[in-house]
Amino acid sequence: MSPMIRRLLIAFLVAAAIGAVFWWMGRPKPIAVAVREIDRGKVESSIANTRAGTVEACQRTKLSTIMGGRIEVLAVKEGDRVKKGQLLMKLWNADQQAQSTLAMTQVVTARQRVTEACAQAANAEREAERQATLRQKGFVSRSREESARTEAQARRAGCDATKADVAQFQARVAATQVEQGRTVLYAPFAGTIAKIVGEVGEYSTPSPPGVPTPPAIDLIDDSCLYVKAPMDEVDAPKISAGQRVRISLDALPKQSFAGSVRRVAPYVSAVEKQARTVDIEAIFDHPEQAGKLLVGYSADVEVILAVREDVVRVPTAALREGGRVLVAGADGRLVERQLKTGLANWEFTEVVDGLTAGERVVTSLERAGVKAGAVYAVDSVAPGK
Asked: Which of 103-112, 231-240, 374-383 has the lowest average pLDDT?
C-alpha cells in the first residue's frame, strides 16, 4: 500500500471515529419507564361510596325513662349481654308504689262493699216478691207492695254503684302501674349494653323534644350487622337491592368481604350542598369471616355492576386521554396506540381492540419525557396477574 493511500485511510478512520463520538454524544438519552405486561383476566365495572360508610347494628335503641328521677337501681353495666324484657334501670318511685298500694286496698274494700250491698239488694228483691204475693191474696195494701218494690230497686242500684266503685279503683291501680312504668327501663330486645349515662344516686333526665340530652342506656343488637354507605346521587339509579358488593374495613386492611345490597334509600341526603348522596345498606354473605366487628367501624362498599371474564385487559393507570396507551416497541421507542375499550374500573379496563396479551404498555406516564417516539429503557416490569 502506497504512503498516500495509507494516509488517506488513516484520515478517513479518524474522521469516522470523530463522527461516531459526536453521534454518541448527541444521541437522545433513553427515558426510564415502568411497563406492565398485558394479560387476560376478569374486569368488573363497579362504583364505590363517596364518603366512608359505617358498620351499623340491625337493632339499636337509646333508652331513657319517660320521666326524670334519682337512679335507685342500675341492674347492668357496660358490655353486659341482656335478654329481652330484662330490667336495666329503675328510678326512685316509693311515692308511686304507695299510691299503688292505696289503690289496691281501695279495690279490696270496694269488693267487700259489693258483697254487702248486693246481698241486701237480693234480700230486698225477695221481700218485694213476697209482698207482691201477699197483695194478690189481699193480705197487704198496694202501697205496702210498692214500698217493698221501691226498696228493692234502691238496693239493686246501690249494688251496681259499689261494682262501679270497684272498676274505678281497679282503673286507679292500673294508672299507678303506668306511672311506675315511667320510672323503669326494660330491654326491648336481646343485645349488648354499649353505654350507660349515670350512676346510682344520680338524677336521670329524659330528653325533651328538640333537646339532645344523652340517653341513659345505649343498647345494640350486635348479632346482626350491616354497612351503611353514601353513594353519589349520579350512581344511585344503577344500584338495586340484591346486587353483589365487596366490603372493606379500615380495621382489617388488605381484606375484602363478599356481600349484597340490602336496601337503597328512597331519598337523597344533602349533607353538603355540593355533595348529594343516596345511602345504601349492604350485608355480609359470611359475617363470621370478618370476625368480631364493632358497631361504628368505618367501611367502604364497592357495588359490582357488570363482570367480564377472561378478556384482554390493560391497567387503567396506563390509559391516556382518549383511550390511548404507549406501547414499548421492539425498536426501543415508545409507540402510541388507540384502543377500543369496554368495561372499566380503577384497576383494569377491558380491551376490545388494539392490544394483544403479551405486549407491554407504559404505566409511568407521569415521568418527564414519556411520549410517543421517545427512546426508552425499562426500569421495572410488572407482570400480568
From this structure: 374-383
